[in-house]
């Protein structure tokens, strides 16, 4: 007998729960202004998340998947992306959209139930959110392949949850990226719960990062509530992407429900949630910034006020949008087939559309 | 012009497409050195290099899913699924994503991609190698579904499909790959998508068919010396309703012939449209000839399953006696 393979997975943490930094891992290019930027985006993402949840509860948004608790994974990775890099989200990456310059009114328009909020403006390098679990990783792999083929120098981040790692599409996409050496960074946003299924029941694998080993690519773990650690690991993976893909497991926690249709108290002990509160991704950066004299109550209050103002303006804009049902028909093919035109004509001629309600909409001046 | 069978015509189309646009990539299982299990991609890797014509790992959902990502990233992928029965493993990617991307991003992301796959039976092969999947991909909307019945159309439709900014499911009847040759221009040309071909004019009866059933219908009509108009649909979705209705209004009789199984088959959709829009011009009930409503059998029984000339001739007799 001889050993033919040996594998291991490293775990990274750069900033601990008390805001202390491991200088041996600290990315030198990160100055305080960049850390402040991360803090502000994480705070804004949390405030936006709370607003979206509240809109859903008021009947002003469709079913919503909150991201509270996962800010460091999303903002740390988004800030690590370079100008031309792409991201391919699942359905919970609102923070990534924010940090990549998508406007909040587009996001709120999507939360309101309109595909018009799903548009990817020219020059923005992303694919829209994807709801069927892990299927988007195949798109991320293909998009990464295209970057290599076209020699753009850009890389692609694909996001998947812990539950998604059980899907065949997850494995297939990593396998493709590995064998074609495509510039893909696959991020597992491991928030410990796939609706009611805990991470421990999802797989017998000790880590999710080790799934990289099966396809012959590097896999690492990082404290997903450590925005500096996430940034460092993703930035290193992106820098190495020209040589091939990396799988990064970000260990974080879903502080809220899977979606607004879910009640986690049915299957999840409150003690577990309380324990994770101690490793909150925003609190530790606040301690760090405060210790350095860069942050204080006044600044916190100002940021909260600004965020709320920006959020309210975005909601107002999103809620003033009036959908045109004809747009359903107009974006299916590159041309309008006769049979679809007939259906559109029949629909516009009939009284049916006039009798239907749009989702709640803001009246002028309200 | 050159005499080509369907395999040669498709190979020629891919060659021209690869030459025309360096964003075109051709990939799938065994399409490289091996040239595909039916040799449709024969010689293309040798000619254009492994960067543009390449073998993928064996995973159909991945072939479709990465094609979506490539198309979103500016390439024009032409992917091959080895057999239609295996393509069902990519059904989620095709239906959840390929079909919806344009709509759900309001045309800000479009997918210029073609997924080719051999379809239909009659060649005595293994299980899951003879499926007729056109209705599955046509039903929801968002995917263009094309199925040629001769070398000329195969080449022109594939070129058209690759030039379009839509996801196209391109179905190639295995039985017709090498059944006959035809004069095919060697240069680039397009056959329109969404447009049926009236391959024989007639006054007494309209027969609507496609794929493997086209030669069967032609023989049956010749045997019966029927004055039938034969429409080769070529594009299953979006359906060319106009050509069907104008012919049926002329002849007053409609017979639909397909290899896909009967129940909820494509013939049901065509018959319903004729009933809705031309019923007062009909002088006989719409008839369908199709395979039985059961999964495609193992080849020992396939000749008892696929409609043949006799079955079509009986249907012609019946509809003409009404």
Describe the protein.
The complex is a heterodimer of chains A (366) and B (322). Chain A has 366 residues and is of the alpha/beta class. Chain A has 2 domains: 310 residues, 3-Layer(aba) Sandwich (Rossmann fold), CATH 3.40.50.970; 44 residues, no CATH class. In chain A, 44% of the residues lie in helices and 9% in strands. Chain A is built from 15 helices and 8 strands. A 6-stranded parallel β-sheet of chain A has the order 1-7-8-4-3-2, with helices on both faces. A two-stranded antiparallel ribbon of chain A has the order 5-6. In chain A, helix 1 packs across helix 2, helix 1 packs antiparallel against helix 11 and helix 2 runs parallel beside helix 9. The mean pLDDT of chain A is 96. Chain B is of the alpha/beta class and 322 residues long. Chain B has 2 domains: 183 residues, 3-Layer(aba) Sandwich (Rossmann fold), CATH 3.40.50; 125 residues, Rossmann fold (3-Layer(aba) Sandwich), CATH 3.40.50. Chain B has a 7-stranded mixed β-sheet with strand order 3-2-4-5-7-6-12, with helices on both faces. In chain B, strands 9-11-10-13-14 form a 5-stranded mixed β-sheet, sandwiched between helices. A two-stranded antiparallel sheet of chain B has the order 1-8. In chain B, helix 11 links the parallel strand 13 and strand 14. In chain B, helix 9 packs across helix 12 and helix 10 crosses helix 11. The termini of chain B are far apart. Chains A and B meet through helix 5, helix 6, helix 13 and helix 14 of A and helix 3, helix 5 and helix 6 of B.
Q: From the structure provided, what is the oligomeric state, counting identical versus distinct chains?
A: heterodimer
- What is the largest interface, and how many residues per chain? A-B, 47 and 45 residues
Biggest sheet details of chain B? 7 strands, mixed
What is the name of the CATH architecture of the largest domain in chain B? 3-Layer(aba) Sandwich
CATH topology-level fold name of the largest domain in chain B: Rossmann fold
Structural class of chain A: alpha/beta
Q: Number of folding domains of chain B?
A: 2
Distance between the termini of chain B: 45 Å
Overall mean pLDDT of chain A stands at 96
Helix content of chain A: 40-55%
Q: CATH class of the largest domain in chain B, please?
A: Alpha Beta
Number of domain modules of chain A: 2
State the low-pLDDT regions of chain A, or none.
none
Q: Give the spatial strand order of the biggest sheet of chain A.
A: 1-7-8-4-3-2
CATH class descriptor name of the largest domain in chain A: Alpha Beta
Gross morphology of chain A is globular
Helix content of chain B: 25-40%
